[in-house]
Amino acid sequence: MEKLCSTQKYNGLNPVNNFKAFAKLIVTKLPFAITRNEQIDRATERVIKKVLAPNGLGIDVGAHTGKITQMMVAASPQQHLAFEPIPELYTALQKKFQQKIRLYNYALSYEIGNSNFNLVTTNKAYSGLLKRPYDKLESDTTITVNTTTLDAIIAPQQRIHLIKMDVEGAEYWVLKGAQQTIAQHKPILLFEFGNKGASTYNITPEKMYSFLQNDLKYNIFTLQGWLNHQPPISFSMLENYFNTDTCYFYLAAPI
């Protein structure tokens, strides 16, 4: 999600790149959202405020530049957790947040160890444990990252209120490695589930829906649907969203 909603500052170096960055910055400052991605960001912020204020604890899986982490910090004074496997982004997050959060240089998955990781050098937001399709020509390379599960990190006494996952298709793997944490704390789940990313991991709408409904005992909502107290979406709705790419970011809440 963040790859489409960057708020880079205008720096006067490259006119084309800086015009795009400046335009994106202006979009975020408007009193209304004019793009789908800005709508998602603003709805996400509303959810985070609603769930975490005044003192809730959040987890940002795939922190990237820290946009969602910052929303968590603004919503609650807790020391939130963030996971970012890309060394350059991890270092930048350390400098940005310092001791305000607990930051981990891991790729979350369903097992502990290390793994090849596809680093997209021209657009780091496309990076992931597996190489997903790109929307345009990109350059990439392979690095090795440490992997772990959320269940291995979260202490039983910690009270978790919200988990956000944006890991380019590996969200199902993150959920598989967080089953104990989710069962114990019943947090709100924010997760990306788009066709290009999920299909790379062979995760179908049926597989995701069944896992959330039957194993985790969670219902799936659109962000606006949950904020507006609407019923959860059905499997057929999720499948349609997935196949038509009309929605790719969701909220799940305990049944």
TrEMBL record:
Looking up Pfam families in the UniProt record yields:
Methyltransf_21 (PF05050)
Q: Which GO terms describe its biological process?
A: methylation
Residue ranges annotated as coiled coil are none
Q: Where is the Methyltransferase FkbM domain positioned along the sequence? A: 60-195
* Matches recorded under InterPro entries: FkbM_mtfrase, SAM-dependent_MTase, SAM-dependent_MTases_sf
UniProt-recorded Gene Ontology molecular function terms: methyltransferase activity
- Which of UniProt's keywords are assigned here? Methyltransferase, Transferase
Record NCBIfam families: fkbM_fam (TIGR01444)
**What's the protein name?**
FkbM family methyltransferase
- Biological source species: Hydrotalea sandarakina
